[in-house]
Each structure stands twice: as C-alpha cells, then as structure tokens.
Amino acid sequence: PSGKDVEEVYFKNKMINLVKKNQIIIDMSTSQPALMTKIENKIINKGAYFVDAPIARTRQAAIDGSLAIMVGCSKKIFKIIKPILSLIGNHILHCGEVGSGQFTKILNNMILFQNVLALCEASKIAENYNLNCEKLFQNISKCSGNSFALQNHGMKSIVNDHYPNPAFSVKYAQKDLSYALELAGNKKISTPGCLNINEVFKKAIEDGFGDLYFPVIKKVI
C-alpha cells in the first residue's frame, strides 16, 4: 500500500482508535518515514508501541520465509518482536528508531532500481552485438559487477524476458522511488540517477507495462 493508503487506514478509517494499552503495532508497508513518526506519536499517546518493518527480497523469499525485514523501533521492543518476525524472514535488521526501517527500505530500493536499469542496458547492448545474455551475466557474476539484482532480476527475469503479473510492478517501484526523491528534495540533494530511472518508469507505464514485474523496463530502453 502507499503512504496515502496507510494514513487512511489509521486515521480516516480510525484504526488508531482500536489500539489498546501495551499493544505493539507492526506496520510492514513501505511508506514515508515522517508518516511513521506521525502514527507513532498517536499510538504512544494510547500507551502502546509502534514499529515500522518494511520487507525486502523476492516473492519466492516470502513463500520460503526468507525475507529481509528492516525494523524501526526501540531496542527493547525489537527484542520482543524479533522471534515473531523471524517466522517470515531470516534477516531481521534493527535499523534504529521508528522511521529508520522506512529510510533503509526506500534507499535500498533506490539502489536496486538503478542496478536493474544497468542490467537492462547491458543486456540490450549484448543482444545487439549477438552475445548470449545469460552467459554474459553468468560471467559477470564472477566479477565486480555481481549483485543481488544480477542473480535474481537479471538471471531470472531479464535474460528470459519474463515479467510476470502479479509481481513487484513498475507502478509499485515508481511509488517507492518517489519517496526517495521526496527525501532528497527535502534536503535539496541532487539525485540524477533517481531522476533518470523515474523517467524510465514513467515511459514504461505510458507504454502499458505498469502492472508487470519492473525489470520490464528493458522494453522501453
């Protein structure tokens, strides 16, 4: 869900009114850090605790229970909830106070999206020179260009032109990227890489690929 959806659930739909003293509310959406702080302040006033815990990795990781979960909360609450989160993830990462989980997830995805774009560009160049893209990526995986994105998005999607729906779509990717652009804009930080991939996402959506797995951006470069 988007930050707008999350805010609507807590405030417009008044879920916040159902929170009871000493409860721990774990929010696993990807939303703006400032929104997490806003929600936390309301929940603290009710004598309860709030945690932001967005997730990362693939659909298969969710099925296997091997997600990475980026957690923002106090160390005390983290110790309580870690065994619960470990049921669905094998890397439960304490990132700091509330909001820091979102910062980590947003910046992780910012890096991932640009990595995937580079893989798409490399595959297009290789194909136009009649190189085998799968072999290229296998060789690069033994070199400094290796990455999680190459092993997963590259080898499992880009080389096979396989962009399923449902999956983490271009529209969802652009939503997460918009949060990185917002964070950078708030501090007047130049992010040419972010702006570039955002234009690629826009083009993919305009061309009708918005609901497909986001490495489909290969088709618009």
Describe this structure in words.
The chain has 221 residues and is mainly α. The protein folds into 2 domains: 3-98, NAD(P)-binding Rossmann-like Domain (Rossmann fold), CATH 3.40.50; 103-220, N-(1-d-carboxylethyl)-l-norvaline Dehydrogenase, domain 2. The protein is built from 9 helices and 5 strands, in the order αβαββαβαβααααα. A 3-stranded mixed beta sheet has the order 3-4-5. A two-stranded parallel sheet has the order 1-2. Helix 2 (33-44) links the parallel strand 1 and strand 2.
Outline of the structure:
With 221 residues, the chain is mainly alpha-helical. It has nine helices and five strands. 54% of the residues lie in helices and 11% in strands.
List keywords for this structure.
three-stranded mixed beta sheet; 9 helices; Rossmann fold; 221 residues; 2 domains; single chain; elongated; N-(1-d-carboxylethyl)-l-norvaline Dehydrogenase, domain 2; mainly alpha
